Amino acid sequence: MPRTMSVSDHIVIRTDPASVYEHLSDPTAMGRWSPENQGATVLGERRGAYVGMVFEGRNKRGPFTWVTRCTVVAADPGERFAFRVHAIGVRRPRLRGPIATWEYRFEAVDGGATRVTETWTDDRRAWPDPVAHAFDRIATRGRTFADFQRGNIRTTLKRLKQAMEAGQEPTAS
């Protein structure tokens, strides 16, 4: 069975696209609402998101922790933010190669709100499907990464909406 290579979901948040972009384009803040990410460290200049910015994300799933190295590939304020994950490791991101791309799009909707669309794309194109399926089921306790990421995306969007509409800094619950 071929893999699902991309999944996305969206939510409407009662605030403007620029405000949502400001929160989501700061990789150091992602851990406040993501179910797996625990924040990040920007490598090099830290002045807001820009194409080419590199950061290392800290992640946790159950008892497992890992670090990823990512590069921002789109930073269009109020419109789009995206980054590619291209290295992974337990304490340091040593294993290099295409892993995934995360993208956030922001669309103004009636009433001053924003439709936020989060998309995960599996960049492991060189992996044969049977190998990817086996790895995915081990890493996600029996699910495909596409199914697993659907749940993560939904959780992230709900937490972000709740925090932004409450006028507070987003925090994981």
Order of helices and strands: EHEEEEEEHH
Low-confidence stretches: 169-173
Molecular shape: globular
Q: What oligomeric state is this?
A: single chain
Largest sheet: 7 strands, antiparallel
Radius of gyration: 16 Å
Structural class: alpha+beta
Task: Report the mean per-residue pLDDT as an integer.
Answer: 91
Strand percentage, roughly? Answer: 35-45%
Number of helices: 3
Give the helix level as a range of percent.
10-25%
Strand order of the largest sheet: 1-7-6-5-4-3-2
Please report the distance between the alpha carbons of the first and last residues. Answer: 35 Å
Question: How many beta-strand elements?
Answer: 7
Provide an overview of this structure.
This protein is globular. A seven-stranded antiparallel β-sheet has the order 1-7-6-5-4-3-2, with helices on one face. By secondary structure, it is an alpha+beta fold. About 25% of the residues lie in helices and about 40% in strands. Strand 3 and strand 4 form a beta hairpin.
Please provide a brief summary of the model.
This protein has helices spanning 17-24, 129-139, 145-165; strands at residues 6-13, 37-43, 54-61, 64-76, 80-89, 95-109, 113-122.
